[in-house]
Amino acid sequence: MKKQLLSFLIVFTIINQIPAQNSSSSQLVRSTTGVSGSSSTISINNKNYIIEQSIGQSSAIGTFKANGYTFRQGFIQPNILSKIIDKDIPMNLDVVVFPNPFSENISISFKEEIEGEVKVYLFDMLGRQIYTNKYESRKKINIDLHDFAVAHYILKVRFNNRQFIKKIIKK
């Protein structure tokens, strides 16, 4: 235990000596430390460093924002949206989703006239696609989700090379 505590203190001291970086930095340092697990360092062109170690917490236990920097304490949080967002398709589909939170059904209402096929996807919070369906264009689409567990989900709607993404909650 003393060895692990000493390792933690050394890593903590080294990390505090590194200048802070914001999320747009080309030298982003993402660091997570804990009393168990392993850590690795990856260097690409001597600019990017990733140090991760299992911390054994089920979620972030604290977030602090100041001067354009975000610091999270606890849990390594995956970038789920990178799996869901199509980077080549604009996020300018004008949609309203209601109710949110919902219990059995959600409605997707378009603020513009649409013609053609609408694709609806539902992802769990790990970024896994758990539902997909195609709908003929209409002003409002009702989707029955009563079989899904009470949880948080990410809804994605695609139409005419445009997309809309929103977190929805089943209660």
Describe the structure.
With 171 residues, the chain is mainly β. The protein folds into two domains: 2-77, no CATH class; 82-170, Sandwich (Immunoglobulin-like). It is built from two helices and eleven strands; from the N terminus they run αββββαβββββββ. The chain has helices spanning 2-17, 81-84, and strands at residues 29-31, 49-51, 62-66, 69-73, 95-98, 105-110, 117-123, 129-136, 140-144, 151-159, 162-170. The strands form four sheets. It has a four-stranded antiparallel β-sheet, with no helix packed on it.
What is the strand and helix layout of this fold?
Blueprint: H1 2-17, E1 29-31, E2 49-51, E3 62-66, E4 69-73, H2 81-84, E5 95-98, E6 105-110, E7 117-123, E8 129-136, E9 140-144, E10 151-159, E11 162-170
Parallel strand pairs: 1-2
Antiparallel strand pairs: 3-4, 5-6, 6-9, 7-8, 7-10, 10-11
Overall helicity = 10-25%
| Annotated CATH architecture of the largest domain | Sandwich
Beta-strand content bin: 35-45%
The end-to-end span amounts to: 42 Å
| Oligomeric composition of the shown chains | single chain
As for the CATH topology of the largest domain, it is Immunoglobulin-like
- Determine the structural class based on helices, strands and strand pairing: mainly beta
**Large-scale geometry:** elongated
What is the strand arrangement across the widest sheet? 8-7-10-11
